[in-house]
Task: inverse folding
């Protein structure tokens, strides 16, 4: 960890109300070819459990996964807040609060994407509460490119759909909510004075770009980012969380 990041960590550890809002895949859990196999690193989970026990300290997972999916792999403890589908669904402890969706438009979108990638090896369409994702992690690079191009062409006449290009995934959504909206909603819910947000993928950049001056944004991995701070991988981020848990315990 850089000296600048260590200093920032000490600063947010002393915030009145602190919200720790984190992307899951690639941040808390190492990326897997099979998304169902993703699990949080034990060190990350231990640190988050400790943080969530502290006064005026909230823990939230902010994922592109649908809420049911996030619940299944995320192993969230009672009291943790969940934002799924990039902020289109929340579980703030009182059950799921989904944004309304046009089911006819969703079915049409899924049908178009399935036709577009039909017969391409290693491409998987995931149905999401507000749209669908075209996964190409298990395809070769050429097939992945053809699948994305075909998927984009299949929805060319639907400019109102939100397209998100992530690592080995194209997500198409009927909702325009982003992870920035998710973090703002969680900030209001928890009345936080400062937010720690970390993410590894393109869709996390919305949230990193919208952070407030007293927040701390951390990029995990080597991809381009607007964040001023970076760690190399989920293992390094777990160490950061453990450090934050110790600093916060001493501060509150
Ligand atoms: Mg991620």
Result:
């Amino acid at each position: 960890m850089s000296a600048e990041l260590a200093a920032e960590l000490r600063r947010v550890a002393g915030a009145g109300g602190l919200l720790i809002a984190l992307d899951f895949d690639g941040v808390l859990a190492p990326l897997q070819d099979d998304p169902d196999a993703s699990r949080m690193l034990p060190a990350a989970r231990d640190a988050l459990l400790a943080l969530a026990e502290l006064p005026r300290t909230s823990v939230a997972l902010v994922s592109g996964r649908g809420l049911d999916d996030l619940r299944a792999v995320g192993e969230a403890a009672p009291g943790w807040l969940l934002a799924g589908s990039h902020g289109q669904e929340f579980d703030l402890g009182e059950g799921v609060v989904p944004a309304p969706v046009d089911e006819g438009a969703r079915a049409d979108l899924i049908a178009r994407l399935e036709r577009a990638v039909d017969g391409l090896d290693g491409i998987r369409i995931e149905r999401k509460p507000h749209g669908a994702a075209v996964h190409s992690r298990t395809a070769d690079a050429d097939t992945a490119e053809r699948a994305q191009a075909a998927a984009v062409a299949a929805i060319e006449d639907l400019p109102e759909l939100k397209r998100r290009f992530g690592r080995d995934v194209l997500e198409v959504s009927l909702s325009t909510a982003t992870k920035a909206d998710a973090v703002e909603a969680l900030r209001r819910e928890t009345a936080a004075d400062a937010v720690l947000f970390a993410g590894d993928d393109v869709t996390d950049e919305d949230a990193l770009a919208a952070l407030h001056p007293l927040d701390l944004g951390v990029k995990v991995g080597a991809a381009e980012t607007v964040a001023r701070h970076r760690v190399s991988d989920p293992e390094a981020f777990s160490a950061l969380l453990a450090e934050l848990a110790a600093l916060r315990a001493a501060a509150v």
